[in-house]
What we know:
Blueprint: H1 7-17, H2 19-34, H3 38-51, H4 55-62, H5 66-72, H6 81-95
Helix pairs in contact: 1-2, 1-3, 2-3, 2-6, 4-5
Amino acid sequence: MALTRNFKQTVVERVERDPRFATALLDEAATLFLSGEPKTARLILRDLVNATIGFEKLAEVTEKPSKSLHRMLSPKGNPSMDNLAAIFSAVRHRLKVAFEVHTIKAA
Length: 107
């Protein structure tokens, strides 16, 4: 029998144990969106929502149906910028962090 752990549960436990890990996931999701990798960003953001605020509470905060939020953050999701901003805002407030944007000049 192989020793395996449920990935979602591992993320939840790590977020509960290490708030910096949650902040790093949020930072990575934002960076990936801005870098043109929305599919991976949505998946990271989905795992972070599951580990922090949860989809039911996110639905209350964003005033969007939970099912719609699940679809938005699925591999084939296509959230509008307004919905994406609302999701990031809700998670950011839950984690009590602020975004600080740094730019670098492309080569």
